[in-house]
Amino acid sequence: MSTSGQNGVSNGKLRVLVIEDNPADADLELGELRRAGFVVSSDLAQSRAEVSAHLDKNTYDVVLADYNLPQFRGMEAVQIIRDKGLTIPLILVTGALKSVTAVECVKQGATDYVLKDHLARLPLCVRRALGETRLREESKEAQAELANKAAELARSNSDLEQFAYVASHDLQEPLRMIATYTQLLAEKYRGRLDADADKYIGYAVEGAVRMQALIEDVLAFSRVGRNGREHVRTESSAALDQALQMLSVAVGESALTVKAETLPLVWADHIQLAQLFQNLIGNAIKFRGASPLQVKVSATRQGTEWIFTVADNGIGIAPEHSEFIFNIFQRLHTRTEYSGNGVGLAICKKIVEQHGGRIWVESAPGLGSSFKFTLPAISADKETTSHEADSRDLVSR
Ligand code: ADP
Known about the structure:
This protein is α/β, with parallel strands linked by helices. The protein contains 10 helices and 15 strands.
């Protein structure tokens, strides 16, 4: 970032390009700046070619341009500066300028204008123009830095995901051997060694099986979005049906009612959307309370998106945990209370975010949970409703 001196000039010297056909006027302008404390170095240009040549050869802090020159209009310099990709402020210094014209000139890119019989204003205008330019450049630098950081983060995230994928994929094979052989050991030598040996083998089998499940979950997490399927018009009700089909075993075991209101067409990856419903309803089944489980799936339109709700009447979640549970490997219960590795909701979050949406939960212990997520809507002209019925009982046992 550039450092600036007292007058907002980087090296203490103000470099000025004066576009003026009358050298006496140019002297008056520069004199005014010097009187205000600027140390000025300047060049004089009178034609388009001279302006262009000076801008190519030298660096300037500010351009002072007469509005009307015999062979050139000062405002044309704005375009020349732009065409060269420069950001030097241009101040019109002119004998007379109608206020309408002055406004037009500022609209077209002049930074300010000063009348020749009010030259005392010039130093103030120059200081202001330098300040604005510096601010603009600093904000541009900050934006570029931010964009760099974001790109770096995206790169390191994708490296990490790649690593997680490869590591967990490659770990599967040796782990399969450990699991298989410890299980064989357990079967073949149970009761033939001492009681401690049986216990230790049991622990080893349990550890290997748990690690297999963990690795499968990490793989599932890092697989989300790897196939890069396009988001297309998707019937969210069809995705829900598919999720319920996948859950049929778990659903079959529980007294469960799933009610779905009219669900919309959305831009989505059908498989990911089904997975999202499956994880949320799977959790509703797993974390059900004492009363018969009821799950309600609904969607309401808000602006350019749909807010989906998967609500259950299960054990609920304390509000202080409502963000934490979406992090990978975070869970609120021991494995003996409820099975799981804390990956399901992290997958849900990844799916929703890859669709440009948000996911959150509204809940309280004992009062059930409403998991909510947003998906982009299809614009009204292209939209058709996916279901004739207002509400339907999908599964009721
Ligand atoms: P897992 O279920 O494998 O532990 P998840 O990431 O799916 O992992 O869920 C994280 C935690 O959030 C769960 O351990 C549970 O404590 C809580 N949770 C998720 N869904 C519900 C729900 N429907 N009702 C109550 N608690 C839930």
